[in-house]
Design a protein that fits this description.
By secondary structure, the protein is an alpha/beta fold. The chain folds into 2 domains: about 120 residues, NIF3 (NGG1p interacting factor 3)-like (Udp-n-acetylmuramoylalanyl-d-glutamate--2,6- Diaminopimelate Ligase, Chain: A, domain 1), CATH 3.40.1390; about 120 residues, Udp-n-acetylmuramoylalanyl-d-glutamate--2,6- Diaminopimelate Ligase, Chain: A, domain 1, CATH 3.40.1390.30. Helices cover about 40% and strands about 25% of the residues.
């Protein structure tokens, strides 16, 4: 399988040109021209790169890649070490950020809905990144949060009345706490994302919306895994999803 063909197809599949993003989407580091083994993971950390090399990866596919807007562009320290590791082994790196969050089938929000047993009904907010729908097994906030903890394998941080009934919900994976306005405009019972800010508590308390911070990494494990599996099936590649756990 040619790397160029895989990158072209993935860019079209995720419609990367639609998004104003904080990083480049697509091929970030060129490696071997022929791809046989694909390793996917959430973040292009050294731990993931080392696992990928041990699995004889030709390409590493991630949600959180490199070269973020506003970061120091100098190739020193961690950046040098990571780039050197890939270049010495001729392993490529491809990253898809917001386009992967928003994809209606393979994306982080869509896949999280399946994991948490939500029905996705639509999209709102900036660049249509906030998903909304219903909880298929409604209950009070305490019960819904408990089920989320069981399915994600970590205890979420929850703000709100534990006895509040939760049926209509909005969610956006990762660090989307500032998208609460979109959830409030919908009038949903709860908003779920990965991270939380100090101000989030006050917004939740003063508006009455329940807020659930379920973990940045924990909410974004599923889209990149689905994308890797899709590409492997389409192009008959060997695919390994490597979960480098992160408590954030």
């Amino acid at each position: 399988m040619k790397l160029s063909e895989l990158i072209d197809y993935t860019g079209q599949l995720l419609q990367i040109e639609r998004f104003r993003d904080y990083c480049p989407n697509g091929l970030q580091v060129a490696g071997r021209a022929e791809i046989r083994t694909l390793v996917s993971g959430v973040t292009a950390s050294m731990a993931l790169l080392e696992r990928a090399a041990a699995l004889d990866a030709d390409l590493v596919l991630v949600h959180h890649g490199w070269f973020w807007k506003g970061e120091d562009p100098c190739v020193v320290g961690i950046k040098k070490n990571r780039l050197k590791f890939l270049l010495e082994r001729d392993i490529g790196l491809a990253a898809y950020h917001l386009p992967l969050d928003a994809h209606p089938e393979l994306g982080n929000n869509a896949r999280l809905a399946q994991v948490l047993d939500f029905t996705l009904q639509g999209w709102v907010g900036e660049q249509s990144l906030v998903a909304h729908g219903t909880v298929n097994q409604p209950g009070n906030l305490r019960e819904v949060a408990s089920r989320i903890a069981q399915r994600l394998g970590r205890q979420p941080l929850v703000f709100g009345d534990a006895d509040k009934q939760i049926r209509n919900i909005a969610w956006c994976t990762g660090a989307a706490q500032d998208f609460m306005d979109a959830a409030l405009a919908l009038g949903v019972d709860a908003f779920l994302t990965g991270e939380v800010s100090e101000r989030t508590f006050h917004i939740a308390r003063e508006t009455g919306i329940a807020f659930i911070s379920a973990g940045h990494h924990a909410t974004e494990r599923y889209g990149i895994q689905a994308l890797g599996g899709h590409l492997a099936e389409r192009y008959q590649l060997v695919h390994h999803f490597v979960d480098i756990d992160n408590p954030v």
